[in-house]
Amino acid sequence: MVFKKMLSAFGVGGPSVDTVLTNPNTRPGLTLDGQVNLVGGDAEAAIEQVVIGLVTRVEVEGHDTEYAGTMEFHRMVVSGSLQLAPKQQLSIPFQLPIPWETPITDVYGQRLHGMTMGLRTELAIARAVDKSDLDQVAVHPLPVHERILEAFQRLGFRFKHSDLERGHIRGVQQTLPFYQEIEFFASPQYASTINEVELTFVTSQRGVDVILECDKRGGFLSAGHDAFGRYQVSHADVDRVDWAQVVDGWLRETTSRYGSLRSQYAPSHGHGHSRGHGMGGMVAGAALGVAGGMIAGEMIEDAFEGDFGDFGGDE
């Protein structure tokens, strides 16, 4: 009996946890629904609490080093203390609100290369090893995200990679400790001025801050450098504008106007990932462009033409 208690302390013969999602697909601002299923072990167990949390992979920059770590960025207690009898089965339903700033992991059914997202369930057991369960989650874009990503595709940009950078963009109302960068190779029509573009969405209930970082090509007598632009759009704008026209305008404005501000705001080191202060300084000094109802244009059809096949591909 003593041996059995020792095994139980190490999780052998103890209670088990399995979380089942009603649907693993969600969007920023919606919910993730499911239930946590508990099954008692060989002996009665005192459960201290049951917690679920969203976890993802985040790039972290230190002094001359860069590494990726798993970060939990949103959690919710689904049950307080309870007693679980031997072999007892218990299901605890939950509705987890998804933060508006949650990064996008999937576009048109394709996983964005470089993105991971999971729901971790933790079962805290008194005087024993905690149990956990991890379920994959897919976060799909909101309509305004879809239109902007579609516009980049229509303009000929090719998806390269996506990751999450630890830090905050100065001047942007940001609640999560990281931001997403979606990287594109420049299309032929922009290739003379841009190598690559990094796109960041910082989403709220009101709308989206769109931050662009363009890796500008150097000229005959000038070195290449990064140019930054920040624009605000409303969720209500989604069917009011020609998004390809809007994004084209953003790119041209960013590369022409903001390029000259680099010496004042941008970091002195070369093109890299540490935008926590450099990019933020640049963004803070930039005027806001608004793509509201001011821009006349054709409305983009709801049906997406073409495919996003390369969104899930490697670099």
Short description:
The protein has helices at residues 2-9, 143-154, 243-257, 262-265, 278-284, and strands at 16-21, 25-26, 31-39, 45-61, 66-79, 82-84, 89-97, 106-107, 110-111, 117-125, 131-136, 138-139, 158-166, 178-185, 194-203, 207-216, 225-234, 289-290.
Structural class: mainly beta
| Strand numbers in spatial order across the main sheet | 13-14-15-16-17-18
> Mean pLDDT, nearest integer?
79
Major beta sheet, specifics? 6 strands, mixed
β-sheet strand percentage? 35-45%
| Radius of gyration from CA coordinates | 23 Å
As a percent range, the share of helical residues equals 10-25%
Oligomer: single chain
**Secondary structure tally: strands:** 18
Write up what this structure looks like.
The protein is mainly β and 315 residues long. The protein has five helices and 18 strands. The protein has helices at residues 2-9, 143-154, 243-257, 262-265, 278-284, and strands at 16-21, 25-26, 31-39, 45-61, 66-79, 82-84, 89-97, 106-107, 110-111, 117-125, 131-136, 138-139, 158-166, 178-185, 194-203, 207-216, 225-234, 289-290. The protein has a six-stranded mixed beta sheet, with helices on both faces. Helix 2 (143-154) packs across helix 3. The longest helix is centred in the C-terminal third of the chain and has 15 residues, at 243-257. The chain is elongated.
